[in-house]
Amino acid sequence: MMTDIATLQTDLMGAINSADTLDSLEAVRIAALGKQGSVSALLKTMGSMSPEERQTQGPIINGLRESITSALAGKKADLETADLNHRLASERVDMTLPAPEAPRGTIHPVSQVMDELAEIFADMGFAVAEGPEIEDDWHNFTALNIPETHPARAMHDTFYFPDDMARDGQKMVLRTHTSPVQIRTMTSQEPPIRIIAPGRVYRSDSDATHTPMFHQIEGLVIDKGIHLGHLKWTLETFLKAYFEREDVALRLRPSYFPFTEPSVEVDVGYSVVNGKRVIGGAEGWMEVLGSGMVHRKVIEACGLDPDVWQGFAFGTGVDRLAMLKYGMDDLRAFFDGDNRWLQHYGFNALDVPTLSGGVGA
Ligand code: DAH
User: Fold this and answer.
1) 257 C-alpha to ligand 1 centroid (Å)
2) Which of 231, 259, 316, when mutated, tests ligand 1's pocket best, judged by the most ligand atoms within 8 Å of its CB?
3) What residue owns the CA closest to ligand 1's atom 3?
4) What's the pLDDT at 3?
5) Is residue 350 in some structural domain?
6) Ligand 1 binding site (Cβ under 6 Å of any ligand atom)
7) Which tens digits make up the pLDDT trace of 28-66?
8) Do residues 33 and 127 share a domain?
9) Are residues 134 and 178 in the same domain?
10) Were 175 and a residue from 10, 135, 273, 351 both cysteine, which residue would form a disulfide, CB within 3.0 to 4.6 Å?
């Protein structure tokens, strides 16, 4: 009897060890511990044993059952781990997609022009600055010398936030221009300052040449001894690089902006080729920029001494610059997301504007 049990144990352990699938292990379990199993049969014999016999045989048979049960559990865990590892190694999901033969997305002309402008101004030592699109009244108007009662506020067709969204007692607006970035820059960094600030601006206005959201770019230089000559040179250099022609003629006209004194509006000359206006020459003039010397009050509002620091600023519409260079005539199409328009006017993502390669290449 003892040897029978020892042999049975050796056989079963061998069968458990050599089981190489969960199914074959389950077959071993049934053959040992199932209703008709060999270990179950031994357990049943205990019922007909004498008390003495049961005392010696009972622990042996129970010991067999326990060691087989735990060997089965151990082997089952090993097989499950091996199975999981195998699946982890073999059931990989390939997340990649085959590349299309030609890239299908395009760079939007507004993004392209902003990149071109950043490239041109970086070459002149300008950094790119940013400010929030949800702006407070002080940065958008007051600090720019546009007080509460100023008519320029009405001209801006401002989107105001409800009064209960005021912050620090300031009414909030969707910024109507990028000029508040001038204020944010002057109040957060020491002069000398040379920045451009491209970004979205908002006005309640909509027709073929106006959309409620559009793009501007602001420029600001603050240093010692800055004068109109610096402004004119900077704009001339920028416009020639942007339109990629040397014969860009500029005309500066006296104008009025609350935040500059004196203020100038800048026109560029165009000629008419096949009935279309083309930049270059001087058959006619069109306005492209607002600019001027930064008003003393603006410099003061930012905590700087206007007797020490002077500068110039300029601002213009990025969408309009794109239209003039690349020949679109309806501004609204810029924001329709029409794939045909994007395919036609969009740029290849790999053509990065560089001064040496031509910014609009
Ligand atoms: N902020 C003006 C506008 O939106 C544009 C402008 C004009 C900006 C003159 C300037 C500037 O920096 O000097 O109409």
Assistant:
1) 7
2) 259
3) 177
4) 64
5) no
6) 177, 179, 218, 257, 260, 290-292, 313-315
7) 999 999 999 999 999 999 889 999 998 998 999 999 999
8) no
9) yes
10) 135
How far apart, in whole angstroms, are the C-alpha atoms of residue 67 and residue 74?
10
Cα of 289 to ligand 1 centre, how many Å? 8
CA of 195 to the centre of ligand 1 (A): 14
What is the domain count for the chain?
2
Strand boundaries in the chain, DSSP class E: 127-128, 134-136, 172-174, 193-202, 213-223, 250-257, 260-273, 276-279, 284-294, 310-317
Tokens linked to 188:
């957060």
* Distance from Cα 218 to the centre of ligand 1, integer Å: 7
How far does the centroid of ligand 1 lie from the alpha carbon of residue 305, in Å? Answer: 22
Closest-CA residue, ligand 1 atom 6, reads 315
Same domain, 60 and 12: yes
Phi/psi of residue 358, each to 5°? 95, 120
Residue 361: predicted pLDDT: 66
Which residue do the tokens 């056989």 mark?
11
In a domain, 351, yes or no: no
Residue type, 252: L
Domain that holds residue 171: 109-345
Ligand 1, residue 178: give the atom nearest the CA. 1
Cis peptide preceding 162, ω within 30 of 0: no
Question: What pLDDT score was predicted for residue 160?
Answer: 93
pLDDT given at position 327: 87
Is the pTM higher than 0.85? The answer reads no
CA pair distance 44, 46, nearest whole angstrom: 5
- 177 and 284: one domain? yes
The verdict on residue 274 lying in a domain is: yes
Is 304 in the same domain as 156? Answer: yes
Same domain assignment for residues 195 and 142:
yes
All residue ranges of the chain with pLDDT < 50 are none
Query: What pLDDT sits at residue 294?
Result: 98
How far apart, in Å, do the first and last CA atoms of the chain sit? 95
Q: Which among 61, 31, 34, 26 has a CA at the least distance from the CA of 47?
A: 61
In a domain, 102, yes or no: no
What atom in ligand 1 is closest to the CA of residue 177?
A: 4
Burial pattern 211-240, b for ≥16 Cβ within 10 A else e, equals beebbbbbbbbbeeebeeebbbebbeebbb
